[in-house]
Amino acid sequence: MARPIWSGSISFGLVNIPIRLYNTVKRKTLHFHQLRKNDSCRIRLKKICPVDGKEVLPQDIVKGYEISPDQYVIVNTEELDALAPKATRTIEIEDFVKLEQIDPTYFEASYYILPEPASVKAYHLLLAAMQHTQKVAVAKFVLRNKEHLAILRLNSSLLILSTLFYQTEIIAQSELEDELIKADQPPTEKELNIALQLVESLSSDFQPEKYKDEFQAKVLSLIQKKAEGETVTAPSSEQNKPGNVVDLMAALEASVSAIKKQKTAGTRKKKIHAAQN
């Protein structure tokens, strides 16, 4: 059963809508411990001073901000706590904007928003207003001692809150202009046409269940086999190295041809399967 990670209210003008916040994702990250090779003794990491080689205990560690090489300003916990955003329980809506105005680069993490029983009517009123105007709400709220910029957006029959990066956290594209290699000349009409064919042949509706984390599945399979005592031979780790495209048109045409063959083979298999059933 899902558990809320945060509870509070949405401030919508003078209207307060009590809500609960839930995670939208369940991380599937694999965690490995570091062990000594000869006896599998688990390694514990210690914080060592490089000057005298002695271990530094947690109570002897302070926070320092480097202002120049090896020059630090020490900031204590009390000073940081005094500056921390007030831990209010309010998601304060500041603006309503069109979703297409927000560059996807700004998106960080997402959460489901569900209403408390007493605020169902107000919650669905906000949903209806956002659906009618086709706008999303820009808001601020405090989560885990940090003030977040976020948007509230409609997703089917409920609201989703997505935290955003602040503009100062985004690397401007202009900073990469010196690294960008410009094309000597624009693509020819023939090249563009065949590229459009390739895009069209790969076009479909987005189906997230289609894409699998193949690496994680292989690692879990490896772990299962080794846990059962099976001897596993590691496959070759050689990877295909990218090479220079000698003939762009030939590569495009070959790609289109290969995809057409795959689709034809797939259609033939479906017909055979249907006939057998």
UniProtKB/TrEMBL annotation:
Q: What is this protein called?
A: Non-homologous end joining protein Ku
Say what the protein does.
With LigD forms a non-homologous end joining (NHEJ) DNA repair enzyme, which repairs dsDNA breaks with reduced fidelity. Binds linear dsDNA with 5'- and 3'- overhangs but not closed circular dsDNA nor ssDNA. Recruits and stimulates the ligase activity of LigD.
Q: Self-association or partners: how does it assemble?
A: Homodimer. Interacts with LigD.
CDD domains, from UniProt? KU_like
Enumerate the UniProt keywords alphabetically: DNA damage, DNA recombination, DNA repair, DNA-binding
Q: Which gene encodes it?
A: ku
Q: Which GO terms fall under molecular function for this chain's record?
A: double-stranded DNA binding
Q: What does the record give as the organism's lineage?
A: Bacteria, Bacillati, Bacillota, Negativicutes, Selenomonadales
| Species assigned in the record | Propionispora vibrioides
Q: Which family does it belong to?
A: Belongs to the prokaryotic Ku family.
